[in-house]
Amino acid sequence: MTDTEERILNSRYRIESLIGRGGMADVYLGHDLSLDRQVAVKMLRPDLARDPQFQGRFRREAQSSASLNHRNIVGVYDTGRADVEDSHHSQVKTPYIVMEYVDGVTLRHILHGTPRSEDTGDIDDAGDGDGEETVVSSPQQDAELRSAETPPPPPPPSRRERREQEQNGEDPDDSDVLALGDTGQMEAEHGAASDVGEPLQKKIDQALGRPVSEQDAAQYMSGILGALQYSHAKGIVHRDIKPSNVMVSQDGEVKVMDFGIARALADSASTMTQTSAVVGTAQYLSPEQARGEVVDHRSDLYSAGCVLFELLTNRPPFRGESPVSVAYQHVREEPPQVSDLNPMVSPAMESVVHKALTKDPVRRFQSAEEFDSALQNALHGIAVDAAEAPTGTITAVGAGAASGREFDDVVGAGAAGVGTPLSARTPEDPDVYDQFEEYEEQPRRRRGFGWVFWLLLLLVLLGGGAWALMQMLSTEEVEVPDVEGMERSDAVSELADANLEADIAEVTHDEIEANYAVGTDPEAGTSVEVDSEVTLQISAGPDEVAVPDGLQGETEESVRQALEDVGLEVGDISEENHTEVAEGSLINTEPEAGSPVPMGSEVDLVLSTGLVTFPGVHGEQHTDATGTLEELGFTVQIDWQETTQHTAGSVIGQSVDGSSVQAGVDVPQGSVVVLTAAYEPEEEEDDEDEDEDEDGNDEDEDADQDEDGNGGDDEDADQDDEDGGNGGDDEDADQDDEDGGNGNGNGNGNGNGNGNNDDE
Question: Where is the composition biased (Gly residues) (predicted)?
């Protein structure tokens, strides 16, 4: 992360400054560009990021942590991976977690202030053995971090360096990771200006180097126990409750951090299985955790009891020269009386501490809620029932307890024999012998057992080493559970409960509904190694295909074959009229062409009848009717009929193939339709000068009387011949001859009745 572009993760989180560095991860102050808020970004060191198994556990635990939404738990917002340059200048995909940024200090800082590194013979003088990382906060260092490349992680210490660090009470693995900025610790270590508010600083000043009051202790513990009650209800065990994993904000709110991360470290073969790596948690280990047994929520309550002890006494319940000796005391020894270390502690509060630190989980507090209730009662002077409080020497729980107080009860052949042993080193590693010898030499060398004791011890160690070697060579296995038919999230949880990691693979299935488990690979009942990755097959539903396109107009047989070719079947078949698609051919499908449908689905067909429904055109103008019919594929002919009963040009009849047809009747496609259209007859003209024809009915304007004496109707009609035909009704009609008959009023030239001959 050397430039501006590289310092923005996932195009959202801007890295601003380094606020913590540990053996496992670096912590940066970041800014969420999307939500405009400060966040803490924890990024695994590149050397660990190369381990696929650790990456898988880290991702799984980060997801579990993100599901915890409680006011006393530091929230996890997001996860991702970023390219980080390692010590070999190569890019490594490194996981990171984006968390809530808490402006405050750790509970450890309130109790002890600056981490102490001088060798005083006690683990707690080496920073409580918590493996606190160096915290960077000076302005100059922040500026350098913004402008320069993030320094590569330091190389792991050599065996010699590790032994020297262990002898000095230091943690060579430094495996603990401070999730958020401990501002008080930064001030103490680097002299930077303090960002701690006055109320919180007052609490630090009051408690620094001294026990806290019962009221303050109960307040801190209520926050811790509230977080544990919530996480335990979610099925998550913290496994690393200690003061450095508890933040106290400026307003006094308590927040527990590193949920899930502590579990990932406990599960990793690179941490809890190495003797030196126990330094970080040895002072707060439960007896069952020290023995390597499978732990439950009551282990967290024991660790919380250790924190309560430290709050009331300003020291952890057990101290020792090595992590092994501290772990041994958790298993075999009773803690000091709280009142001996702090006379101000009431008997009621002391009874709560003793019950919390009971070796037997069955006699311990059974829930965080019960623990918190006992604390509140103790503030009012109500003690835990004396019959319930542990008394006398407590015998260690486990298969190896019966062999007495020899050290082999903790490590070696007499250990419980389940889970991860406290030390996973081989017998050939001299460091193992050295630690055992250092623990046994001081008190037992003076007891005068002589060579008998050493011979027995050697046999015990050889037996323990052989047992440890067998444990390493043997692999713990579990059976893959049957998850078929489970909903996706339930199936993932079922595998997680079996200590298996689910790798989701979606598969199509004709019967199992989408988002439900089809099965696993390896299949259910198969024995696999603990923490193995199992492929969880989740149904995506049946295979889908698209209804074929371009089938309109095809015959039923062709359509059926096309559907079968893509894995579909013919469903219901119906018929409809159509103007173009031939009889028996496809009009459309249901679902429509191109629609995605599950493989094997039925597709309904709509075929053409070859008919067209005749429209209603009666009374329309023949031109409009013709257009309507031609659009439907008909051929139109017009037959005219003279009539005065209908509007000229309107359709008064329609027929197909010589038969009259009515609207709504189905007729064959492309039929010839004959429309009968009306026209009006022409009107006759009544001219005043109409001439008579041979029969006396001549209609011509200039018609003359013929030889028979019939006058026409013309205005200038003259008498024609000697027979005295009378002129018609013309105004200028003249007598023609001697016989001159007078024209009658009707234009007849026969001279009858009305005509008089005029003499010259």
Answer: 741-754
